[in-house]
Amino acid sequence: MPLPRLILTSGEPAGIGPELCLAAAARQWSCDLIVACDQALIEQRARQVHADIRFAPYTPGAARQEHVPGTMRLLHSPLANAAYPGRLDASNAHYVLQLLDAAIDGCSRREFDAIVTAPVQKSVINDAGIAFSGHTEYLAERAGGAHPVMMLATKKLRVALATTHLPLSTVSGAITAELLERVLIILDHDLRDRFALPAPRILVCGLNPHAGESGHLGREEIEVIEPVLRRLCKSGMRLIGPAPADTAFTPHMLAQADAVLAMYHDQGLPVIKYADFGAAVNVTLGLPFIRTSVDHGTALDLAGTGKADPGSLYAAIEMAIEMAAKARRRQRTAPDRTLPAR
């Protein structure tokens, strides 16, 4: 089976992304690991954090080779202006998106088997006049308008989101039957397809306290969530809920599930980050390519100090390798991956 090739984008140049990439380059990986970054930036950051890494240019079309610890195959993309740790510069916003574009284009050519992303700073991209709500939405748009589903995963817990980066005041209106059905179909499909779970069990949270308390604390469960779950269960999905979010994450409930679907960002993600912060992986489901990422931000205050914890990036790379290997095994009988009908 061919060696998986991953593209690792270095993210916000003023953040910890470049030095996380250096930490990754120092380790052994069972893949061909390519890093997308400005060459002068990564070399300067290596000197700053005393990383002994040998750099070599990567040319698209080059033969695959297993990663050698202490080396970095570099896909160079030039900065607009020199970047300094902790100092955001909106003129470099387009550079951050160029890294993602190179990764997406490479996946579309099957040059890369997966994308792993270091963190970006959404605020500085918006300050540059670019409408950007996050990696997840940008990747989906570039993938032709795919519907992305954000999931954080550890070795013990998977939490997906029905909605992502929305103000809390708009969440109820966003959770329609159509949206919820689409998210659950994608989640069920990708748990089977990319995590090799033949019959995934999905625990679905309610939106309101006590899952609406039979309509006394809100009717979204009765009018939207429950009908969707009944309909999809009849089609063969294994769905549990809607469950009160304050008990959904208890050991007894989690023992019955392979993944939890939370209705909004801060309903589910604080739990998994508390349980295993620094070891969780952000996975984007519903895309025509594999994408994993860290579970944290750019940590501008730590940039350039060499003190940033690379644990989440290591976990993201490991998960991407596993997912890419499974995808390659599937391609022996089904060369083209198609998403379920919306």
TrEMBL record:
Chief localisation class: cytoplasm
For this UniProt entry, the molecular function terms from Gene Ontology, in alphabetical order, are: 4-hydroxythreonine-4-phosphate dehydrogenase activity; cobalt ion binding; magnesium ion binding; NAD binding; zinc ion binding
Q: Which cofactor does it need?
A: Zn(2+); Mg(2+); Co(2+)
Annotated cofactor note: Binds 1 divalent metal cation per subunit. Can use ions such as Zn(2+), Mg(2+) or Co(2+).
Q: What is its EC number?
A: 1.1.1.262
Broad EC category: oxidoreductase
InterPro entries attached here? PdxA, PdxA_fam
Q: Where does substrate bind?
A: H135, T136, K273, N282, R291
Record keywords: Cobalt, Cytoplasm, Magnesium, Metal-binding, NAD, NADP, Oxidoreductase, Pyridoxine biosynthesis, Zinc
The question of whether Repeat is a record keyword is answered with no
Under SUPFAM superfamilies, the record lists: Isocitrate/Isopropylmalate dehydrogenase-like
Positions with a binding annotation for a divalent metal cation: H165, H210, H265
| GO BP, sorted A to Z | pyridoxal phosphate biosynthetic process; pyridoxine biosynthetic process
Associated pathway: Cofactor biosynthesis; pyridoxine 5'-phosphate biosynthesis; pyridoxine 5'-phosphate from D-erythrose 4-phosphate: step 4/5
* Catalytic activity field: 4-(phosphooxy)-L-threonine + NAD(+) = 3-amino-2-oxopropyl phosphate + CO2 + NADH
Family statement drawn from the similarity comment of this UniProt entry: Belongs to the PdxA family.
Oligomer and partners: Homodimer.
Protein name in the entry: 4-hydroxythreonine-4-phosphate dehydrogenase
**What gene is behind this protein?**
pdxA
